[in-house]
Amino acid sequence: MKSKITLKELAKLLNVSVSTVSKALHDSPEISPKTAERVKELAKLHNYRPNPVAVNLKRSKTGTIGVVIPNISNSFFARVLSGIEAQAQEKNQQVITYISNESIERERQICDMLTSGLVDGVLIAVSEETQKKQEYDHLFSLVDYDIPLVLYDRINIDIPADKVGVDDEKSFFDATNYFISRGVKNIGLASAIHHVGIGKLRIKGYEKALAGENEQHLACSTVPEELRKKIKSLLTKDKVQALLCTDFESTILATRIAYEENIQVPSQLKLIGYIGREVAEFLTPSLSYIEQHPVEVGSKAMEILNNRLEGNYKPGQFKESIIATSLVHLESTKF
Amino acid sequence: MKSKITLKELAKLLNVSVSTVSKALHDSPEISPKTAERVKELAKLHNYRPNPVAVNLKRSKTGTIGVVIPNISNSFFARVLSGIEAQAQEKNQQVITYISNESIERERQICDMLTSGLVDGVLIAVSEETQKKQEYDHLFSLVDYDIPLVLYDRINIDIPADKVGVDDEKSFFDATNYFISRGVKNIGLASAIHHVGIGKLRIKGYEKALAGENEQHLACSTVPEELRKKIKSLLTKDKVQALLCTDFESTILATRIAYEENIQVPSQLKLIGYIGREVAEFLTPSLSYIEQHPVEVGSKAMEILNNRLEGNYKPGQFKESIIATSLVHLESTKF
DNA sequence: CTGAAAGCGCTTACAG
DNA sequence: CTGAAAGCGCTTACAG
């Protein structure tokens, strides 16, 4: 039950003023070595730690940053968070986590809270709904309140803020070219996120790589049963020899359909998915995937936010940083 | 650029005192309806919101709670967090997230921070290392500082705190009995977490169900290659007809080895794993699993913490709440 | 070298 | 009904 000791109590015990104690603990040159030592000794004895709330009030800052996550079950975002947290830890900042569950309504509530002065800055990946509706008023309200804002991952939004993204387009451009260079003829693409920004970019990369020379084979739908039908058609009718999947759902669906249709991966069908390592390497056969380096996305976002907070960037000019993906080959792309 | 307006500024604009403004905004009966209205109107116009840091200092609380997570890539913990966050949101509390990465050293640092008064209470699942070493001094220091503490998931620790767990033992007892009742003879168990609390409990459930009547078939190792060998031996030499897996790693390894050894699931081998739905239902064949209801673990932990904070529990007496698991049958246990 | 004072932004007993 | 004062726990210019 060592209830926290305050400066005032320390001062009384030492028979000096609160100011003296405070200065001594901050190694102020104003204080004599002797009293400085006395103060520090007693402070250590009582394990004194300044009340962070009081310090923050005095400094007019909070020492915390807010992170908005659309969906924490998505391991990409979970790992982004871990990158953010690691970075914050080094800088002794606290991370307040908010989960929007892909809902714009919830996102609005969160942004509303955030403008009340709970945090020094905000990292956000906007919800799918927000992207669909393209309503960004709540984000602009953060900007209006001068709360530094960094968008991560879902950055295809016209708003004056720093951004950290993933090179979605290039990842699929490269992956498609990988197959082209190996002489694969029918290359298909499956997507359950064709309607959102990152989905569009990945599809664009695929289309650019094909560049009219090869026929496109697309299976896109947000409805699982629809998507299943379309992928099945790609595999059995179009007989694609390679399939790129833009997201977890389509990836898993594709491996599933191949299994059901008795199509051997990788001998008859090469597969590349957009999923995390934890799952990719444990599928049967193990699945080649595009690694997005989520931890780096998180730490980069945090780094940019801190630079912004420390005034290292010019106001009105914004950073946009893109983290390179890598194509990790496991069994499903063996030739 | 609407920089935040303060009570003082509001007061000046209205030509009243700060106290009057504060009271008016809190619907104090001391204030005349007329001024109350004037104040509220201007407050709304300027979108006034009390500075939470100041309010917290005044109230001597922080309005935030700290959550310590061993490993956020584990979807169980990610979903626990989402349960916590949802509950916190309703109560208008902030959730500060810390990730220990299963390291006791990091956990100590976190607990040290937490004793400085950053949060009103703490929810923690201790790291594996902490469990192994059984060093809980840092947890006791939270207790010493009178910071309410709720352990979740990993609760097999002798410490005066509230706890929310999962009925690990019963889950495996029931699962094993499920097979026994169907006349399955050789029932095996695979584990990569046999050395930690929850692993031990699951194994215990299995052993109790077998109760000497049936032979045990255990494959346990923390070394992937070791575990692989042992599971393979279970499947090919012991020829188990059913296999229970205590964790993600052993579950995936088992499906993998069955595939490689050309053992058909579920006709030749029934499988039950301890993994999340997202992955379970997308494996091939889909994998029956034990659902732990992580979101409920999180919201229950939060509920207990809030009750504790509100003084609804007797000091010195602690709650222990167990969330029931359910066995979800997918393809891998079809008879 | 030390301490009194002001102030961060708020709330609330108390006086008028 | 309104406002001055004290105080939450701290920091820091300023006076002595």
From TrEMBL, chains A, B:
Domain HTH cro/C1-type per the UniProt entry, residue ranges: 4-39
Give all residue intervals belonging to the HTH lacI-type domain.
5-59
UniProt keywords (A-Z) are: DNA-binding, Transcription, Transcription regulation
Any idea which GO molecular function terms this record carries?
DNA-binding transcription factor activity; transcription cis-regulatory region binding
List, alphabetically, the SUPFAM superfamilies matched. Answer: lambda repressor-like DNA-binding domains (SSF47413), Periplasmic binding protein-like I (SSF53822)
Give the InterPro entries listed for this entry. Cro/C1-type_HTH, HTH_LacI, LacI/GalR-like_sensor, Lambda_DNA-bd_dom_sf, Peripla_BP_I
Task: Report if keyword Transcription is assigned.
Answer: yes
**Mind telling me what this protein is named?**
LacI family transcriptional regulator
Task: Output the lineage of the source organism.
Answer: Bacteria, Pseudomonadati, Bacteroidota, Flavobacteriia, Flavobacteriales
